[in-house]
């Protein structure tokens, strides 16, 4: 069993930096379309990630900005990935802690994992990363996919 590190799951085709999406839905659609083109997800991925986010919101309010870690059921993931999206203008997610509260998310990690224990480990490691405002600030400033991946690798995330 290899270590569940972010860098082993973050793959260039599903890294988007400095993006603009008008809504959470549009973001999900784009990720789903790309993951689907790559053959990494089943066709019900979009519907399931939407449904799951509606039931169990994943927005996280940090000190200086918001984040979100949407994920979906293991069985609709064919090839594991963690998509990383940084946004120029935040997109609203509902808070994980209070689903009446909105979080303006600027960095989003979409977890496409099909091993339940890996998903748990990844959530824990992301929670650790989200406490690290210095690295997050660096990720948010990255302007290319390569730059963002390098930051993740350099910090051994």
Task: Walk me through the structure.
Residues 8-155 form the PTS EIIA type-2 domain. Pfam families: PTS_EIIA_2. The chain is an alpha/beta fold. Helix content is 40%, strand content 23%. The chain has helices at 6-9, 24-37, 45-55, 116-130, 133-141, 145-154; strands spanning 15-19, 59-61, 66-68, 81-94, 102-112. Strands 1-4-5-3-2 form a 5-stranded mixed beta sheet. Helix 2 (24-37) runs antiparallel to helix 3 (45-55) and helix 5 (133-141) packs antiparallel against helix 6 (145-154). The longest helix is centred in the C-terminal third of the chain and has 15 residues, at 116-130. The chain is globular and about 35 Å long. The model has no long low-confidence stretch (mean pLDDT 93).
CATH C-level category: Alpha Beta
Structural class: alpha/beta
Q: Return the CATH topology.
A: Mannitol-specific EII, Chain A
Q: Measure the end-to-end span.
A: 17 Å
The DSSP helix count reads 6
Tally of strands: 5
Could you give me the name of the CATH homologous superfamily? Answer: Mannitol-specific EII, Chain A
Whole-number mean pLDDT: 93
Sheet with the most strands: spatial strand order = 1-4-5-3-2
Outline, from the CA principal axes?
globular
Q: Any idea what the CATH architecture is?
A: 3-Layer(aba) Sandwich
How many domains make up the coordinates?
Answer: 1
Q: What Rg do the Cα atoms give?
A: 14 Å
Largest sheet: 5 strands, mixed
Unreliable residue runs? none
